[in-house]
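Question: Hello, beginner here. Any chance you could explain the protein record under this note? Any guidance would be welcome.
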Amino acid sequence: MNEEIEKVDAAVAHVDSHQDALDTLDGSRTHVGQSCFGAEVFDHDRPDLGESALETLSHRHDEALVSWRVHESTIDQCLRVQGGGESGRIAGLQRLRNVRPELLDRALADAGRPISALLFTSPNNPLGWVYEAREIDEIIDWADRQGIHVIFDEVYALSVYGERTFVSAASRIGSLGRNVHVVWAFSKDFGASGLRAGVLLSENEAVLEAIDGLAYWSAVSGHTQYLLGEMVADEAWIDAYRIELRTRLAMAADRVTAALEHAHIPHVPAGAGIFVLCDLRPFMIDATWEEEDLLWRRILNEANVNLTPGSACHVGEPGWMRLCFAAVPTETAVAGIRRVGDVLRSG
């Protein structure tokens, strides 16, 4: 730990001598290389780039973005409050395992308005599923046939601990072209949400110019850019970190899964991310969103555990709740599951 602190202190002490990291107000276009994505691509360091890209691609009030995932409420906030657009959902939980073009075709047909883009998340949040190369290829091909943008949200790219290997969309095609975009951030894989630093991979100059304008007023500081640049350039450290991250996530997930099974709480098996989706439908009297809200509040008040209700993640039916297990010590997560189980068993 002291060695890492000394490394950061040294970087801060010398940051002013690296004027090239400070000469833009809206971030930098720098070369990251193979450390994070497994393919040499140019990146665009920006805060909240996933959200800014969504705003740019859904800027018209009569257009919508369709999401291939049960997605977080922050996507809605971005589209409706900042971008003036709307989001729609393609499929329920059981259909999200396998990518099928017919589901995408059906979503287009049922949208009732022009579709600007498809948001595809892998690893999936909150399901923790990792999609295979074949499935990524099918998404790219489908979007190309339809002539719409596709945004690959890969924010949990390094947080994979299951049997499947993460495959970045950037590694599947020689050129992203005008309509393929990839977003990632330091917030999840490196636990650095407070730095507000993200990455956009895009070759669409109109999108990049729009992002430049948006980022001018919300830039990542030059010091932060320099420190993160130094970190990802240290490939030996990155490789060791990825191994340790995978090992610790797998250990935590195993213990959390065992605790859920011991508490008789059904859940969806996951292989990535920092969460697990729990099926609390058997513990609800009625299958309504109002009943889900009551159960969520009851767990919060009686067990002192704050789960994420399915309504906040666009789950298609009431009763699913997300449990984040990696933000606290594993013992704390296990104790929380035990208390949730006690509340559920008490009726």
